[in-house]
Design a protein that fits this description.
9 strands, alpha/beta, 18% strand, 38% helix, TIM Barrel, 11 helices
Length: 254
């Protein structure tokens, strides 16, 4: 089961979420890859940001920072985040991950879909197709979205797989059937789905789909999910889960 750092390593105070520092920290800690949130700037550059604006990451409060979709890439890339980091482009993240062959999950924002998400998805598809042409076999990408139409528009663009993320309030079985019908290969569940019904993993796997679960930080729960056949877990503590699953080193013979 793969361990994926949620937004890189959000629990590391020195590495703000969705930055190159957060991605690097997760990979150096032994994670198999990272999940990052993707938005497009006003001039069509794909950058990392979970929120609509950067106020929360800057520490000034949600709603107070530059709105990504209304700001140029030059303005965003010139903005200093806590710890001296900057807002990275998705291309820079993919280049970093490609060095070690790490897996990157690209989550298109906003979650609800709509014109902004579709524009971002279109730019993402074009970027991934171009990278596949220029850098064959360099990337290991799973495209993801909470919105079915957005997720389906990216089917086949990722080099590993394409996923629908299922919100906790939605029926996971129905969502999985819809995902399969739209050509998606993965379904990523909320922990609540599996805690409520352990059998959901087997049912989704029986549809021929891969199963991810996130966000999971408890090593014991991660072990249980692995036993159920979950293919990947997304975690806020990639260092902890990677450390937990690492095989013990035998003591040297006396």
């Amino acid at each position: 089961m793969r361990v994926i750092g949620h937004r890189g390593t959000p629990t590391c105070s020195r590495s703000p979420e969705n930055t190159l520092a957060a991605v690097r920290t997760a990979l150096e800690a032994g994670a198999d890859g990272v999940e990052v949130d993707v938005r497009s700037t006003s001039d069509g550059v794909l950058v990392l940001s979970h929120d609509r604006d950067l106020g929360r990451v800057l520490g000034t409060g949600a709603g107070t920072g530059p709105v990504v979709a209304h700001t140029s890439s030059a303005q965003l890339l010139d903005l200093e985040l806590p710890g001296g980091t900057v807002v990275p482009t998705l291309g820079a993240v993919l280049d970093l991950a490609a060095v070690s062959g790490a897996h990157v999950l690209t989550e298109v924002k906003p979650e609800a879909g709509g014109p902004e998400a579709w524009r971002t998805a279109s730019l993402l598809a074009a970027l991934l197709i171009d990278r596949r042409r220029r850098l064959p076999r360099a990337d290991r990408v799973t495209t993801t979205s909470f919105d079915l139409a957005t997720a389906a528009s990216l089917s086949g663009c990722g080099t590993v797989s394409s996923a629908l993320i299922v919100a906790p309030a939605l029926d996971p079985d129905r969502a999985a059937r819809q995902a399969r019908e739209r050509g998606l290969t993965d379904v990523h569940l909320a922990p609540a789905h599996v805690r409520h019904d352990r059998g959901v993993v087997a049912r989704i796997r029986a549809l021929g789909l891969l199963v991810g679960v996130g966000v999971i930080d408890d090593p014991a729960e991660a072990d249980e999910l692995a036993g159920l056949g979950v293919h990947l877990v997304c975690t806020d503590d990639p260092a902890g889960l990677a450390r937990h699953r690492a095989p013990a080193v035998p003591a040297a013979a006396g």
